[in-house]
Design goal:
With 191 residues, the protein is α+β, with helices and mostly antiparallel strands. It is 34% helix and 12% strand. The longest helix has 14 residues.
Length: 191
């Protein structure tokens, strides 16, 4: 992002528009997104015990949680950066309706970012760790990963629009880019 874009984002989230991204801008963005989340957020915390209690046993390479379902993907969803349609999304049954609402609402705001699907349910551990990923619970989705990589700082090096994050926040989902300052492709059904 350039200085003008940072100022616009700062104005959008309600902090001083000075063009420098730092602790005040980060805090304002988190506060802004939290204000959009439901008062009674339906999702668990991101601790492994809360995830297991709410979603059940995470999937692994040899085990798939029986609560993982396949839902029809929106007709506009494409696999990675191709024109290959995605016909179904595998996710936990508890998040399926919320996920589709967030995707459809975000698509209306920024279709080019939302239409690039990079996965939801994957039986794996967190990158660089040994604990199950929220993807292993079927409670996370990655979008536009080519321009919003795991290690790229948001918003300085990643370009996921705040409006996409807002639509997921309205469903109670945590937008990683805003809360972790990286991994802007990632949205998870945790508070």
């Amino acid at each position: 992002m350039n200085k003008t874009q940072i100022k616009a984002l700062q104005t959008h989230v309600g902090t001083e528009a000075d063009g420098f991204w730092g602790p005040n801008s980060i805090a304002a963005t988190k506060s802004h997104l939290r204000s959009l989340m439901p008062k009674d957020n339906p999702w668990p915390s991101s601790s492994q015990s809360s995830l297991r209690s709410f979603y059940g046993t995470p999937s692994t390479e040899t085990f798939t949680n029986p609560d993982i379902v396949r839902v029809d993907a929106p007709e506009w969803l494409r696999l990675y950066d191709t024109d290959k349609p995605v016909t179904a999304i595998s996710c936990h049954k508890k998040v399926s309706e919320s996920l589709l609402r967030a995707l459809n609402a975000a698509y209306k705001k920024h279709p080019d970012f939302v239409r690039r699907y990079f996965g939801c349910h994957v039986g794996r551990t967190m990158r660089g760790g040994s604990s199950p990923s929220t993807h292993a619970y079927g409670a996370a989705i990655d979008l536009s990963a080519s321009t919003n990589t795991n290690r790229s700082h948001w918003p300085l090096r990643s370009n996921m629009p705040i409006e996409v994050m807002e639509e997921f926040a309205k469903e109670g989902w945590l937008p990683a880019g805003a809360f972790w300052s990286r991994d802007a492709m990632h949205f998870q059904a945790t508070r």
